[in-house]
Amino acid sequence: MDYGTFQGILTLVLMIAFLGIVAWAYSSRQKKSFEEAANLVFSDEQKDVESKDSGETR
To answer: Which stretches are transmembrane (predicted)?
Structure first.
């Protein structure tokens, strides 16, 4: 096996890995967990609003 063959095999393996990651990221099974992760940023804001409404301080 020469260097060119090794590069070709490595390229193929990396391309398959990339396509697998893309398929995983865009799969409908992951949508709920990704939406939860995206909304974690706003969870502190909701707690702040709730604490101000009830008169609590930190």
So the answer is: 6-26
